[in-house]
Amino acid sequence: MHLACLPYLYKTLAFLxxxxxLESGYVNRKNEVNIMVKNAIDxxxxxxxxxxxxxxxxxxxxxxxxxxxxxxxxxxxAQEKDMGMVFSTYIxxxxxxxxxxxxxxxxxxxxxxxxxxxxxxxxxxxxxxLPAGWVWTTRGFLSALNVVDIAGCSxxxxxxxxxxxxxxxxxxxxLGRYDNENTSSLSLGSPTNALVGMFMLWWGWLGFNCGSTxxxxxxxxxxAARSAIVTINSSVGxxxxxxxxxxxxxxxxxxxxxxxxxxxxxxxxxxxxCALYHPWEALIVGAVGSILANCTVPLLDKLHVDDPxxxxxxxxxxxxxxxxxxxxxxxxxxxxxxxxxxxxLFRGGxxxxxxxxxxxxxxxxTWSMVATFLLLFVINKFVPIRMSPEEExxxxxxxxxxxxxxxxxxxxHYPKLDIxxxxxxxxxxxxxSSAQTQNAGGKPPEKLNSATQTEDTxxxxxxxxxxxxxxxxxxPKEVVVVRTxxxxxTAWMSDDEKDMIAKRxxx
Length: 507
Description:
ammonia transport; 507 residues; membrane; 4 strands; mainly alpha
């Protein structure tokens, strides 16, 4: 086995676990299993697509290959004499491909239809594969222009970040996300999961960047060693910047999401030139990437672009800066000529390298956004890409995976509502709707939640007072009242009951 396969396998496993835990920590509990399953889907369907055609589009060299797309290597296999290099390259690039898709899954969290996402994961391989060929093969047109992207700053993270932007815009915000112009970030479902996921990604990035030297023979181990310290220093700079930024913008509080986004954005930013920077330069690159990501998150919220895990800010903003930083800081290397004989603007090399890096950002961003829009647009014609409002309120764990958090093992069944109860709830809904109409601008009415039950055997009385006229409606003991839009009335009803209630819900 090619020696480089070891860090490749290590990196792949770390990223699979890391992204899954990170994203499950950001979402609401009723969606955390679903987002973990989607990370598995990225490997299952994304891996199938990459084996069938993705690798061929990136690295195919048979007749018909050109500067835009490769041909050859479909349904990948290799002869014994070639299998070491071919298969090690394949497994490494497969982890890049699944990473690019996983980035998008975070921005689509909590409202994307699962079947539609499976289709997206399979075909999204194409969106990654072509830029990978442009950047990392001798036939690629960006490679011919001497672009520098050692570990996937543009080919992976920019592709994922810009695709995530389009997906989030097309899916639109989660229900109630920006009601009453509330643009503040939501609390994490599990901060511990998010932090553990960040730690796994953190050490996985060492395999990510060091493995991008494709071996340890000759001078490669020297570049791998530099990549290691540069990667760590970049995350140090990003972490410090995130803590300081949070301290001064949140009244001396150290916000967990700022730290996570800052560290991850710094790691994204360093991937472009990780084997070429000096350690002190890495501190600067990481710090700037961290600040840019943490400024992008509230900007997207103001624009009502709903990204539950901050994928657009971390991978989009971080990668754009990372590509530009190469054109500013990198100096010519003499051992392996990874910089193609070019030098950054701040090193006296003029504008050529920076210009090439800017061109790569524009080309890859445009391709990713257009291709993602077309892919989701076509998928939506066959399978709706967004869950229905009732499904979204109930949560993807229940709707897609039949995971019910309100199960009562002592009763050995899920509670159901009879027709009398449904009629009572209908009266309540109509009264609430009437109160909203007559008392516009007042305090929002309480909403029902069937995901929790009361041990009290007495009925629940609700009083509504529009214009000083009190109306009392008695609800059965199975139903309680809460004040959150995230709870759902139909969480444990049968399909027929859901349909009956959904028809009476106020618009």
